[in-house]
Amino acid sequence: MSSTGYIVAAWLVTFGVTAGYSLWVVLRGRRLSQEVPPEQRRWMTAGSRGRE
Amino acid sequence: MTTTATTSDAVTSAPTSTGSTATRVLGAASLVGIALLVVFGVFVSPPDKELGETIRILYMHVPTVSVAYLAFVVTAVGSAMYLWKRTEFWDLLAASSAEIGVVFFGLTILNGMLWGKITWGVFWRWEPRLTTTAVLFLTYIGYLAVRAVPASPRTRGTRSAVVGLLAVVNIPIVHKAVDWWRGLHQERTIFGTLKPEIQGTQAFAAYLGLMVFLLLFAWLLIHRFRVAFLAERAAESGLEGAIAERRQEAGQ
Fold it and tell me: Is A15 part of a structural domain of the chain?
């Protein structure tokens, strides 16, 4: 493979993996939102929840 | 009456995804930044005198490693705060940041290998910077593995916080490896030096790359933290449901 091929591959891999991971996170968030009761989807207000 | 109304409000206004106004603004800014980075990094920026066309890989390599370091530092801060405050927020923040850091650090290794293939003729050499990089990567894979071990949230949080604090010690070793030992990896050219060796459009593309990946990190961290929070609530709901089922079975 030529150097141009490796450079193109680097850009494709970087943004491809970033896009794939981002999509996985967003879709997982949507799926979990369906599973969790609405009154518990309050991440900012439950931030100080203890672990006792 | 008031309680019913409050619960009803909570249900109707509950988010249906991990998105919010902040994430939408960050996401839009990231997309614009990526488009600009492609234009400047691939088409506008001239080849470097020494690095030639391979500098185009460094427009991603340097930002991804910088953001990965930042993510691991956030993990260390979250770990320390968790051991002190013992709150879920710090534990989930540390874990979310570690996962994003592993993704960006993995990308750093991958595009670094492609750069190495052009420059050195091989994808990998066991020289000081690359060896310490591999150790750092495996350490954070270990952090994620520790989190996957079944345990109570408190035990899991404590174990991973200790690993998160120990792992961050590797970062200065990786960063200074090019100064401390002789190896193939080039020295710092842009960040961490008072006299950057690149100027003009090249410097602009490099700093733009850093800005874009910082925006992406912020966007991902918010989403990933909320996913982690929802996963905890889903696990609790599942556990409570299973306990209720067993009690019902035992009562019959």
Answer: yes
Whether A23 has its CB under 8 Å from any CB of chain B: the answer is no
pLDDT, one tens digit per residue, over B52-84 is 889 999 999 999 999 999 999 999 999 999 999
Q: Is B34 on the interface with A (CB under 8 A)?
A: yes
- Residue A32 counted as domain residue: yes
Does A43 contact B87 at a Cβ distance shorter than 8 Å? no
Distance CA B130, CA B50 (A): 21
Question: Taking the model in full, what pTM does it have?
Answer: 0.87
B231 contacts A7? CB cut-off 8 A:
no
Average pLDDT over residues B216-238: 92
Q: How far is B181 from chain A (nearest CA, A)?
A: 27
**How many structural domains does chain A have?**
1
Is residue A27 situated within a structural domain?
A: yes
Say if A24 falls within a structural domain: yes
What's the domain range around A24? 3-36
Q: 3-class SS at B16? A: coil
Interchain proximity B107–A17, CB inside 8 Å: yes
Task: In whole angstroms, give the CA distance from residue B241 to residue B231.
Answer: 15
Cα(B213)–Cα(B37) distance, integer angstroms:
10
The ipTM of this complex is 0.86
